[in-house]
Specification:
Elements (H helix, E strand, L loop, with lengths): L2 E2 L6 E4 L3 E7 L9 E4 L3 E6 L2 E6 L10 E5 L2 E7 L15 H84 L36 H27 L6 H13 L3 H14 L4 H13 L3 H14 L8 H17 L3 H14 L4 H16 L27
Parallel strand pairs: 1-6
Antiparallel strand pairs: 2-3, 3-8, 4-5, 5-6, 7-8
Helix pairs in contact: 2-4, 3-4, 3-5, 4-5, 5-6, 5-7, 6-7, 7-8, 8-9
């Protein structure tokens, strides 16, 4: 049984707005003190002692505070109504006070749940704003390129017209000097603009067909068919509802496949999750890890770039996710010999986790490779001559 500290053994004072309560810890270490409060109840448990009080009136729990230090626990309780209490504890039947405590506890739980919901909504709005900002930037860049092409096209047409007029004037002057009229065919008219319709055999790849690549292309098309099938199944299940309509369910499923080494099934699961919610950065980052495992480096790089664009703004909560995305994109870039870009991404990963010795070793390896490839711009690169593997090799961590 705990030893109860009575109201006579503590100190308290009040104004119309605030109540100050000082509870002595009686030699017990501050680290062992446990504090709990609601809007009508306060408690300090510091074994073997216990102090608790049903407050005379309600307080603003969110504005109140408790401080541990110098052998005491000091409460600063902000009154909900600015009146003089005259006493700290409420009086009444024990059952009534117990019911009052439970009601205060329920209000406290509800306030905490509301705060969590508010934080989630703020995070959702922040992500939405970041995505919209990226869309606006892309749209502005596209419009800028369109306007530039229009200006170049107009300039080229004007130059053609000037050249045609100069050639016509030259031909006319030459004919006049010889006493002849210029032939009507000497300066052909500028041809009118038109469109040439060209049709090609339908092909899924941008490059020309090659027999030596037929097997690889067939394997890729098979993978794409499996991914599309997974997306269609996800959409159908989303219409029906249930746990399979949750993108987090597909993320967990993909993580299980990834840990089991079944990378294609993991890709299908992550793709299905993206079909339900294409704003979850973790789905793209984890799918990139699977692409790396299958040596599909371009797909891995694209997924990492998509994940990085979604992990905005950069905050502590998404630091680990950004680290994984940058290190995986570095691995993909290194695999296609773009060492300069790979070094830049690995430097960003090192900045996010400066104490990670593995990342430091990966950066040194990439810098040495870039130096040997003739792409080094930093004189310090000559010192980095380690012969380790590419960054990200053996990394089984997932987001």
């Amino acid at each position: 049984m705990p030893i109860k500290v009575t109201e006579k053994q503590i100190q308290w004072s009040e104004t119309d707005a605030v109540v100050h309560v000082v509870v002595p810890l009686k030699g017990v270490k501050s680290a062992k003190a446990d504090i709990y409060s609601t809007d009508v109840y306060i408690k300090v448990n510091f074994p073997p002692f216990l102090f608790e009080a049903d407050l005379f009136a309600a307080i603003d729990d969110s504005a109140s505070s408790a401080t541990i230090g110098k052998g005491t626990v000091e409460f600063k309780l902000v009154k909900r109504e600015q009146v003089t209490w005259g006493r700290l504890s409420a009086t009444g039947e024990k059952a009534n006070l117990q019911e009052r405590r439970l009601e205060g506890q329920e209000r406290s739980f509800k306030a905490q749940a509301d705060a969590v919901d508010k934080k989630k909504e703020e995070h959702r709005l922040m992500q939405k704003a970041a995505v919209q900002k990226q869309i606006d930037q892309d749209r502005a860049e596209t419009q800028k390129l369109t306007d530039l092409k229009d200006v170049e096209k107009a300039t080229a047409n004007a130059d053609i017209e000037i050249v045609a007029q100069q050639e016509a004037a030259t031909a006319k002057a030459s004919a006049k000097a010889k006493g002849k009229k210029p032939a009507s065919s000497a300066v052909p008219p500028v041809r009118a603009l038109g469109e040439i319709q060209v049709s090609f055999t339908k092909r899924h790849f941008a490059t020309a067909a090659r027999e030596s690549h037929a097997a690889e292309e067939e394997e890729w098309l098979s993978k794409q068919m499996a991914a599309r099938k997974a997306v269609n199944e996800a959409k159908e299940k989303a219409k029906e509802g249930g746990v399979e309509a949750d993108p987090l369910w597909y993320k967990d499923k993909g993580n299980d496949f990834y840990k089991a080494g079944n990378f294609q099934s993991a890709i299908n699961a992550y793709t299905a999750g993206i079909a339900l919610d294409n704003k979850m950065a973790g789905l793209f980052s984890n799918r990139a890890a699977c692409h790396l495992a299958q040596n599909d480096f371009y797909a891995a790089g694209n997924d990492c770039s998509q994940a990085i664009s979604l992990l905005t703004p950069p905050v502590e909560a998404n630091r680990r996710s950004r680290l994984l995305a940058y290190s995986r994109r570095s691995a993909a870039l290194a695999a296609v010999s773009d060492y300069e870009s790979a070094v830049n991404d690995m430097r960003e990963a090192n900045r996010l986790d400066p104490d990670n010795e593995g990342l430091k070793a990966d950066l040194a390896t990439l810098m040495a490779k870039m130096n040997r490839a003739g792409g080094a711009q930093d004189p310090a690169l000559a010192a980095a001559e380690s012969d380790g593997g590419d960054p990200g090799e053996g990394d089984n961590d997932i987001d």
